[in-house]
Amino acid sequence: MKNVLVIGSTGQIGSELTMKIRREIPGSTVVAGYIPGAEPKGELLESGPAEVADVRNATQLADIVSRYRIDTVYNLAALLSAVAERKPLMAWDIQMNGLLNILEVAREKGCAVFTPSSIGSFGPETPRVNTPQDTIQRPRSMYGVTKVATELLSDYYFHKYGVDTRAVRFPGLISNVTLPGGGTTDYAVEIYYAAVKGEEFVCPIAPGTYMDMMYMPDALKAAVDLMQADPSRLIHRNAFNVAAMSFEPETLAAEIRRHIPSLRVRYEVDPVRQAIANSWPDKMDDSCARAEWDWCPSYDLPAMTVDMIAALKKRFDTE
To answer: Would 290 be classed as within a structural domain?
Structure first.
């Protein structure tokens, strides 16, 4: 992995992943792919090349891959779960037609492709606790449908054409750098911001709703480590369960109150997000990822909370 294109480089994952690869892989060229209206700024723009990279434009993608001699594509273009329910046709266009364009370019140019799947690829019939790597996937959201199709289409291109496709099923991701935009698990980021700012937090997810979560440094590590893993060890390419912690809103609030006792939480359940959350597992079994490429998270809930609060206090100068 030397010449890398990160599509969706200004999003929640992409903005941090682009910088991580630029910093940690010597000699790498990492192109920050973006769409008009979501241009990179600051260090993301100044530290390396940037190109307009719309997944719906195959010619544009092929040109970037050729000019920069790209060997690895991180395809992070997607509408998140709640937004995808409001815009299902757009979600399909970006997540499926866009993926097909990327896979065709990869087949022609010899690139590896990482397209993340999600906990959202599961559905209400899936075992909720210790969800197996291989199990029933019957999601009831457009986001979930596209993620299952992503896994299958990526597997098809690997078995049919030899394209080096790899993926993980991300749980909810929590970051102190970039706010999410329309995901079911967003509350687990927003509550930290409210706590540090001294604001009441209005939670859209009901008490007792457990979901898998992961701190962004672990998510970035998973994305990089999998693409650098020995391919001969990989059995489940698309996509590996990865997990770090599972909690519900009350548990998260209680952990934050250990550091900020004044946190106030009120519940106003969003029926769309709650319905999606109810169809997802409480906790995934990630033993295959641990066995096949040595996956191991570094953060649990207490460690993440300490780091999140410290980072946000520094940002908002509230210490």
So the answer is: no
Residue 163 lies in a domain: yes
Looking at the structure, tell me whether residues 26 and 12 fall in a common domain: yes
Cβ neighbours of residue 75 closer than 8 Å, sequence gap 6 or more:
7, 8, 55, 98, 99, 102, 113, 114, 115
Q: Which of 34, 143, 192, 299 is catalytic?
A: 143
8, 131: one domain: yes
**Both tokens assigned to 276:** 């999606």
- In the residue annotation, 215 being an active-site residue is answered as no
Please give the Cα distance from 76 to 22 (Å, whole number). Answer: 17
Regarding whether 268 and 160 lie in a shared domain, the answer is no
Closest CA to 84 of 146, 33, 138: 146
CATH code of residue 271: 3.90.25
Name the amino acid, one letter, at 148.
Answer: V
pLDDT for residue 319 is more than 60? no
This prediction's pTM: 0.92
Instruction: Say if residue 202 is in the same domain as residue 83.
Output: no
Q: CA angle, 158 as apex, 5 and 83 as ends, to 5°?
A: 55
pLDDT band at 123 (very low <50, low <70, confident <90, very high): very high
Strands 245-247 and 211-215: antiparallel
Instruction: Outline where the chain has alpha helix (H).
Output: 14-24, 42-46, 58-67, 81-86, 88-92, 98-109, 142-161, 187-197, 216-228, 249-257, 271-278, 287-293, 301-316
Q: How many domains does the chain have?
A: 2
- Domain hosting 95: range is 3-171+216-241
